[in-house]
């Protein structure tokens, strides 16, 4: 077996059985051992044979790797204890964050609210002016005509603002959904903790 | 009524209303003070007094 073949079999065998750093260290160690034997006068095949079978070396290395330490018995209990003890800090921050989100949502809906008020006021005022304009037309035609025209204009403006408010409401509904979807993802996304 | 149909109706009402209001003001010879002197009409009495 050549040195290259030996090192390749050793590296492949170690992969998955020992940590990557340890595998690299072992391959370098046995490579140096083979090179030392060659320098001492052995042929490459003899040096590789003296080091041993790669499978045996992998088995020995896998046996010598210490087991990972077991998890604490009650990690959830500890987590809940920390949550309860830290409630005055994270609770206040959570309430503040909730208030900020609620304020953003409230600001978002101010536009449609103003639009709805204007639309209803213009529509009702204009509609009333149109409805009562026939009474004004009797006797004082020019005044009645002005009122009818102004009433129709206000009614049209009210409907136009109503249409714009409807479009704005659809946009705001999208913004509202995006905002709360973002808030919901904050609980699902894993966080990095720097301590 | 669908919101899309509301838009041409609203624009039509605005244009038509503006024309009528302009005509009414023109019949009053573009005199705003004329609107203040209609106290003798029953309709104005009903609404403003």
Radius of gyration of chain A: 41 Å
Structural class estimated from helices and strands of chain A = mainly alpha
Helix run count of chain B: 2
* Ends apart, CA distance between termini of chain B: 39 Å
| Beta-strand percentage range of chain A | under 5%
Shape category of chain B: rod-shaped
Largest interface between protein chains, with number of residues from each side: A-B, 30 and 27 residues
Number of domains of chain A: 2
Largest beta-sheet characterization of chain A:
none
What sort of overall outline of chain A do the alpha carbons produce when their principal axes are compared? rod-shaped
Structural class of chain B: mainly alpha
Helices of chain A, by number, come to 7
DSSP E strands of chain A, number: 0
Overall mean pLDDT of chain B: 78
Helices and strands of chain A, in N-to-C order?
HHHHHHH
Q: Percent range for helical residues of chain B?
A: 55-70%
Largest sheet of chain B: none
How is the quaternary structure best described? heterodimer
* Helix and strand pattern of chain B: HH
Word description of this protein:
The complex is a heterodimer of chains A (195) and B (49). Chain A has seven helices and no strands. Chain A is mostly helical. Chain A folds into two domains: 3-64, no CATH class; 88-188. In chain A, helix 1 (3-14) runs parallel beside helix 4 (54-64), helix 2 (20-39) packs across helix 3 and helix 6 runs antiparallel to helix 7 (141-188). In chain A, 21% of the residues are buried. The mean pLDDT of chain A is 87. Chain B has 49 residues and is an all-alpha fold. Chain B is built from two helices and no strands. Chain A binds chain B through residues 132, 135-136, 138-160, 162-163, 166-167, and chain B through 3, 6-7, 9-25, 27-28, 35, 38, 41-43.
């Amino acid at each position: 077996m050549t040195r290259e073949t030996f090192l390749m079999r050793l590296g492949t065998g170690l992969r998955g059985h020992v940590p990557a750093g340890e595998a690299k260290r072992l391959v370098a160690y046995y490579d140096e051992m083979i090179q030392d034997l060659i320098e001492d006068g052995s042929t490459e095949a003899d040096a590789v044979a003296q080091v041993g079978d790669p499978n045996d070396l992998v088995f020995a290395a896998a046996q010598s790797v210490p087991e990972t330490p077991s998890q604490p018995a009650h990690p959830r209990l500890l987590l809940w204890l920390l949550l309860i003890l830290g409630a005055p800090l994270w609770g206040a921050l959570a309430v503040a964050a909730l208030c900020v989100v609620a304020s953003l949502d409230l600001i978002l809906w101010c536009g449609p609210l103003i639009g709805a008020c204007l639309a209803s006021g213009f529509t009702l005022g204009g509609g009333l002016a149109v409805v009562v304009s026939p009474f004004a037309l009797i006797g004082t035609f020019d005044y009645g005509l002005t009122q009818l025209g102004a009433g129709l204009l206000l009614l049209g403006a009210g409907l136009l603002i109503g249409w714009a408010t409807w479009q704005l409401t659809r946009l705001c509904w999208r913004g509202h959904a995006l905002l709360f979807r973002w808030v919901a993802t904050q609980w699902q996304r894993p966080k990095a903790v720097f301590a | 009524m669908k919101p899309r149909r509301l838009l041409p109706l609203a624009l039509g009402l605005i244009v038509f209303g503006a024309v009528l209001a302009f005509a009414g003001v023109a019949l009053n010879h573009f005199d705003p003070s004329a609107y203040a002197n209609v106290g003798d009409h029953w309709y104005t009495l009903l609404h403003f007094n």
